[in-house]
Design goal:
The structure holds two protein chains of two kinds.
Chain A: H1 9-14, H2 17-24, E1 38-44, E2 49-57, E3 63-71, H3 74-86, H4 92-106, H5 132-156
Antiparallel strand pairs in A: 1-2, 2-3
Chain B: H1 5-10, E1 18-19, E2 22-23, E3 25-26, H2 37-50, H3 60-80, E4 88-91, H4 94-109, E5 115-119, H5 128-137, E6 140-144, H6 154-162, E7 166-172, H7 184-193, E8 197-201, H8 213-216, E9 220-224, E10 235-239, H9 241-246, E11 257-261, E12 264-267, H10 281-297, H11 299-318, E13 323-326, E14 335-340, H12 345-354, E15 357-358, E16 360-362, H13 367-373, E17 378-382, H14 389-405
Parallel strand pairs in B: 3-15, 5-6, 5-7, 7-8, 8-9
Antiparallel strand pairs in B: 1-2, 4-10, 9-10, 11-12, 13-14, 14-17, 16-17
Helix pairs in contact in B: 2-10, 3-10, 4-5, 11-14, 12-14
The chains are: A alpha+beta, B alpha/beta.
Chain lengths: ~160, ~400
């Protein structure tokens, strides 16, 4: 049953069906990867959202698997779920580009966000400033986890898989 | 109900607006209340008619401003049963009053081995000043156990007192999350018997029920004016006179002195000693108007009205599947925190807002309590004199819409 039209217009802008779908059936959520290449656990104390993301790379250095867990509102959970699918198969640099695009979309910057695929469903969040930090929490996990990995690799001098 | 709510609502211009196509239902009164025309008019009257600095000038405007400002103190003192107006020290908000106690009294008297007792249900304003006091003095902070029903375990309190060394007990009269009304007179008496002083956070109590500070017998009481129809930037610390007199001020500068030399200074009498600098004069005069407004209604009536609303809301909310409320059913302050299974409070608030219903969601400045309750956040509906049963129905309808929207068919 479609609820479109039965609810205030603003609600359908913020909560597109794909978001509600990911919220109710989150993908790649639950068990985290054991000994991941990188990962990060972040908490947003103002709303209590809490997300941990773990990432593995394959032999070519592409993102092979993203597993996450956490609790929070539908926006933060749906964003993490969609992100976990979108990042798969991307190189770390491609992932960074995607991250930049996503943050741009959240800030409401003009531009085309086709490369974000179904993540574009979250574009309505930019009109609800207090919810932006919900949508970006999982992405900050990847961003910071990746950065920490790079720092370790740079110090150690050995490029880790 | 004994309140003429329809008439009261006429005094609140802000309530007569639509929010997203629906009449506004304002249920965030524990955060701040709306202001009646009489309070807003007091601000206008001051700025249009007698704006001048207080306690200084000899001219007529200055006299009128001082009279209005000190008149507010007299009204507030009468409102809470204070033996003298001087025991009402003006502050900006509830937090400031407790900080004045922390800096001016606790930090100068506590040391290693001394104990401060507080609880896990406190607003950050009644926790962090004591955490910082403990850090600065080497005193120990102990917490009264919280029972499942959201009340303070009195045996735990007795035990902490009996362990000795207790110099200060700080707790809220009414919890801003659980709604719990603590047994104040009992707890104060026990603290005094153990040789401790008591600081009360009465921010969620004084706006909602008849209060006689003499009956409470606490040593310090902090209250916020903006949660009782007054402007933001107003509040007060009430204290026992001997303690206020022996305390050191927290802020130094203009107005708070009696005598100044290049080599040093002597402080003014209470309360001027604690009120350095030019205050927000108009706001305190308007706070006085707010107290007039509440006095005219009668605080017993305010309490009964909120109790009826809260009890009605409690029944309606509990008829919703997946509903969990926090804190005891009665006695409780005029607020209910709740969680609806499967719907995060932020999502809930977003949906309610689209139906014109304003509630507070989040941690309510009580993060340790969220940890104890093991929830990331809660929804909170809080009531005041202008709220109606119909508005409770609107809240419940909007909650049902939210459940449907997120796919939980009732």
């Amino acid at each position: 049953m479609s609820l479109e039209g039965q609810h205030p217009v603003n609600l359908n802008t913020l909560y597109q069906q794909v978001i509600l779908d990911h919220y109710k059936k989150p993908r790649n959520k639950g068990e985290l990867l054991v000994d991941p290449v990188f990962g990060k656990h972040l908490h947003n104390p103002t709303c209590g959202d809490d997300i941990e993301v773990t990432v593995n790379l394959d032999a070519e250095g592409k993102i092979e698997d993203v597993k996450w867990n956490g609790r929070g509102c539908s926006i933060s959970m749906a964003s993490a779920s969609m992100m976990s699918i979108a990042l798969r198969g991307k190189t770390p640099n491609e992932a960074k580009s995607m991250m930049t695009a996503f943050y741009g979309m959240m800030k409401g910057e003009a531009g085309t966000y086709k490369s974000l695929g179904e993540l574009q469903a979250l574009s309505g969040v930019s009109k609800f400033p207090v919810r932006i930090k919900c949508a970006t929490l999982a992405w900050h996990c990847v961003e910071e986890g990746m950065k920490e990995r790079e720092e370790i690799d740079n110090k150690g001098g050995s490029a880790n898989g | 109900m004994t309140l003429d709510v329809a008439r009261i609502r006429q005094d609140f211009p802000i309530l007569h607006q639509e929010m997203n196509g629906h009449p506004l239902v304002y249920l965030d009164n524990a955060a701040t209340t709306q202001k009646p025309r009489q309070v807003i008019q007091a601000l206008v009257d001051y700025y249009e008619g007698y704006n001048a600095n207080v306690h200084r000038g000899i001219h007529t405007l200055a006299e009128r401003a001082t009279e209005g400002f000190e008149g507010a103190r007299v009204k507030i003192a009468r409102f809470i049963g204070s033996p003298t107006p001087e025991q009402v020290v003006f502050t900006r908000n509830g937090s400031e009053g407790l900080n004045i106690v922390a800096y001016g009294w606790a930090r100068r008297r506590l040391g290693p081995g001394d104990v401060i007792i507080t609880s896990g249900m406190e607003h950050h304003s009644n926790l962090i000043p004591w955490q910082q006091t403990a850090l600065a003095t080497g005193a120990t902070l102990k917490f009264i156990d919280l029972d499942q029903d959201g009340t303070l375990n009195q045996e735990s309190y007795d035990r902490l007192l009996s362990e000795g060394g207790v110099k200060l007990v700080a707790f809220s009269v009414a919890s801003n999350v659980l709604g719990t009304i603590n047994p104040v007179t009992d707890m104060v008496a026990k603290a005094h018997a153990a040789g401790a002083k008591v600081a009360l956070d009465a921010v969620q109590a004084v706006p909602h029920m008849p209060v006689d500070v003499k009956a409470w017998d606490a040593d310090f009481i902090s209250v916020a004016g903006h949660k009782m129809l007054g402007p933001t930037g107003t509040g007060f610390l009430w204290g026992k006179m001997d303690l206020l007199e022996e305390m050191e001020p927290t802020y130094f500068g203009g107005s708070m002195i009696s005598e100044v030399h290049l080599s040093g200074a002597k402080w003014a009498d209470v309360p001027a000693k604690f009120e350095a600098g030019t205050p927000n004069i108009a706001d305190f005069i308007a706070f006085g108007a707010a107290v007039d407004y509440l006095s005219a209604i009668g605080m017993e009536n305010v309490y009964k009205h909120e109790k009826a609303l809260t009890e009605y809301a409690w029944q309606k909310l509990h008829a919703i599947e997946g509903m969990r409320t926090f804190g005891p059913r009665q006695p409780r302050a005029g607020l209910i925190s709740f969680d609806v299974e499967g719907i995060h409070p932020h999502d809930m608030s977003a949906v309610l807002n689209e139906y014109g219903v304003a509630i507070r969601v989040g941690h309510h400045c009580a993060q340790p309590l969220m940890e104890i309750l093991d929830v990331p956040a809660t929804n909170r509906a809080s009531f005041y004199i202008y709220n109606t049963m119909e508005e409770v129905d609107r809240l419940v309808d909007a909650l049902l819409h939210a459940k449907e929207f997120f796919g939980y068919v009732a």
